[in-house]
Amino acid sequence: MIVTALAGTLLLPLWLLVLGPLVWGVPHVVADLRYLVVRTDYCRRRALCWLAGAPLLWIAGGGDLVWGFFGAAAVALVARADRRRRATAVSLLGLAGAGMAALGAMAEVVFGHLHNFAAVGLWWLWRERGGRAHRWPLALLVAAVLLLLSPVGSWAVAWTGGLERTGAGVSAEFQRWRLAPGVDAELGARLVLLFCFAQSLHYAVWLQLIPDDDRRRDTPPTFRASYAELRRDLGDVGLVLAALFSAGLAVWAVVDLAAADRGYFRMARFHGHLELMAATLMLLERPARRG
User: Mind telling me which residue stretches traverse the membrane in this protein (predicted)?
Assistant: First the structure.
């Protein structure tokens, strides 16, 4: 996955930035809700539902993302952990929220970049690791990130002409303005490549690695069994809503690809904070989850 994402980033970054969210965006948000809400006991704890749900709905409606950090701090207050750990988590999340508030308009950009790596952290936490094999892909991930931020990455994408292949009329200049505003052109181009790469891996983790780690048996299930389990988790209403969102986004993309891409990000804006809240609970309650 890392090698494929890196190759795609160097060859067709602008197309991946536009098409990736339209193809994998809704399924990965569904995976967020499925694995972080439905398949944990979090959704059965009323205090968590209120403390997490209110700020998430506010952010989904266009509210300031800083509220997501304060929502995560509120969730930490009711976590099943000792007082000292909860206090530490609340303090750190409060500082992070204050830092985001100080960034002003840049907060959305910074959080977007950081959020792409959240799935890797959640994958790390998802299951007890019996060996060290998982460290090799993580080392490869770090190497790929350093390559994309280095002059070697700039040379490679210049050699492939990747940033010259405009994705659905969205130019490299527009993506630099969106993903690296106020940054010089060279560093901005590297940050665009990094976002493209990290976003691709974010989808891969949610749609492949976490489902693999979460399944209850070693052998992969059949497509019929996978569908039955998905239906059991989401219910008929949830399944229909997910299908309608996917179909609607596809139709919108046929009419106006760039507008559909922007619309998806507005719709899915809340899910990064859902991941932050879940990661907070997993870290605080980790001994209990393992026991």
Answer: 56-79, 86-103, 138-158, 187-207, 234-255
Q: What is the pTM of this model?
A: 0.88
From the list 282, 277, 284, the residue with the least C-alpha distance to 86 is 284
Q: Report which of 129, 137, 118, 145 is spatially closest to residue 206, judged by C-alpha positions.
A: 118
| 167: β partners | 170
For the record, the structure tokens of 253 come out as: 């993309």
| 231 C-beta neighbours (distance < 10 Å), count | 12
pLDDT tens string 26-53: 999 999 999 988 888 788 888 888 989 8
| DSSP at 222 | P
Write down the residue that tokens 């989808």 correspond to.
203
The Cα–Cα gap between 151 and 131 comes to 35
Cα–Cα distance between 9 and 228 in angstroms, integer? Answer: 35
- At 121 the pLDDT is 87
Contact criterion met (CB below 8 Å) for 22 and 260: yes
The pLDDT of residue 241 is 92
Write the CB contacts of 130 (distance below 8 Å, at least 6 apart in sequence).
none
CA distance 121 to 86: 19
Which DSSP string do the residues of 262-286 spell out, in sequence order?
Answer: HHHHHHTTTHHHHHHHHHHHHHHTH
Give the residue among 38, 46, 25 at the shortest CA–CA distance from 54: 46
Distance CA 11, CA 7 (A): 6
Q: Report how far residue 170's alpha carbon sits from residue 161's, in angstroms, rounded to the nearest whole number.
A: 15
